[in-house]
Amino acid sequence: MHLLTVDTLEQAQNKIYSYLAKNELKTEKIALTQAFQYILAEDIHAPFAVPHFRRSTVDGYAIHSLDTVGAGESIPCFLKVLGAVEMGEENRYTVKRGECVYVPTGGMLPNGADAMLMIEYAEKFGENEIACYQNVKHNQYVVDVGEDIPEKSLVLEKGTILRPHEIGVLASLGLAEVLVYAKPTVAIISLGDEILQAGERLEAGKIYDVNTYGLYAQAVKFGFAVQEYHHVKDDREAICRILENVVHHVDIVCVSGGSSQGEKDFTASLLAEISTTGILTHGIAVKPGKPTITAYDEKNACLLLGLPGHPVAAMLLFELLAAQVYRKLWQVSPIVQITAKMACNFPSADGRLTCQLVQLEREGHEYTAIPIFGKSGVVSSLAKAQGYILVGMNSEGVKKDEQVCVYLI
């Protein structure tokens, strides 16, 4: 039997990165309405100030704040009403001392006014006069030009994941389209004679396909586009035909299962044949996921991943290899992390980086990480997990109450 010569996780990631970085990242311009969860491929600078006019944050009257000095519920001041500013229209008024103009929330402030009086503190007297019952400060309830976003300022950096908040900011700049990184395309191939598809009758010795669906969701979560997926029996020729076809038109091929050393484990030899690099890594010092395989086909610019058959290991290794390497290429911020204390002593795997799923409990501002014990084939552990910790390969483990970094999932 051929023994695996394992790489560290960092070595495996660096090998993948060295090949992917040779190619120019694909970009595309898409409509802002379609940009959710895409990643910005350029810095965004403000073409103009936001807001580009002085605007009110309340419904009320634009005034001179000095007119209200000493005003209160028992001693109002009186102001002449010149008229009203309509929403969406340019101001045509100039406010002098002792005068005011009605302005709705978001409306443009008249010239000369330096504050807003909330309508709740104003009372009408006749047609053209109000009583003011509030001492208003300079610039109160007013947003100045560029107070939100100064003109030419850096608004969003390249590598920003576009959530609803960022899309709203881009919309405030009048952008109908945005340049983003094209989503890398993925093909998922799940191997095994024992695999059944959802809806088929469960038989002794058979299991339902978990990896296809788990990896599909994992890929979408991290900004990839699954172009196709297949289930193939443990037949070398059938697997080879699928691989030779998909490698031409996707960016990543994920082969789930067949990465160990059994007599039906064809993944390593097939990836070696199809790729131009041969096997980059066969064996990673990570628990779970040691038999993971990586290769790269330069001709088709396609990353080839041979992932373990156990669902927990397959999904974690997809994140650690494909997702994290692409996030580095895209200059995306690291995966969200929090600090927590360990709920119990936890030993590490000898000579391997241990990736341990955890649940989180919160008390006040502090978190406690509770390990989810279970073998890598125990699928339910994925649903229970809120994050994972990485325990170093040269570490004996983590002690109870020790602070750990939890990567949220």
Automatic annotation (TrEMBL):
<keyword id="KW-0808">Transferase</keyword>
<dbReference type="InterPro" id="IPR005111">
    <property type="entry name" value="MoeA_C_domain_IV"/>
</dbReference>
<keyword id="KW-0500">Molybdenum</keyword>
<dbReference type="Pfam" id="PF03454">
    <property type="entry name" value="MoeA_C"/>
</dbReference>
<dbReference type="InterPro" id="IPR005110">
    <property type="entry name" value="MoeA_linker/N"/>
</dbReference>
<feature type="domain" description="MoaB/Mog">
    <location>
        <begin position="187"/>
        <end position="328"/>
    </location>
</feature>
<dbReference type="InterPro" id="IPR038987">
    <property type="entry name" value="MoeA-like"/>
</dbReference>
<dbReference type="InterPro" id="IPR001453">
    <property type="entry name" value="MoaB/Mog_dom"/>
</dbReference>
<dbReference type="Pfam" id="PF00994">
    <property type="entry name" value="MoCF_biosynth"/>
</dbReference>
<keyword id="KW-0479">Metal-binding</keyword>
<dbReference type="InterPro" id="IPR036688">
    <property type="entry name" value="MoeA_C_domain_IV_sf"/>
</dbReference>
<dbReference type="InterPro" id="IPR036135">
    <property type="entry name" value="MoeA_linker/N_sf"/>
</dbReference>
<comment type="similarity">
    <text>Belongs to the MoeA family.</text>
</comment>
<comment type="pathway">
    <text>Cofactor biosynthesis; molybdopterin biosynthesis.</text>
</comment>
<comment type="function">
    <text>Catalyzes the insertion of molybdate into adenylated molybdopterin with the concomitant release of AMP.</text>
</comment>
<keyword id="KW-0460">Magnesium</keyword>
<protein>
    <recommendedName>
        <fullName>Molybdopterin molybdenumtransferase</fullName>
        <ecNumber>2.10.1.1</ecNumber>
    </recommendedName>
</protein>
<dbReference type="Pfam" id="PF03453">
    <property type="entry name" value="MoeA_N"/>
</dbReference>
<dbReference type="InterPro" id="IPR036425">
    <property type="entry name" value="MoaB/Mog-like_dom_sf"/>
</dbReference>
<keyword id="KW-0501">Molybdenum cofactor biosynthesis</keyword>
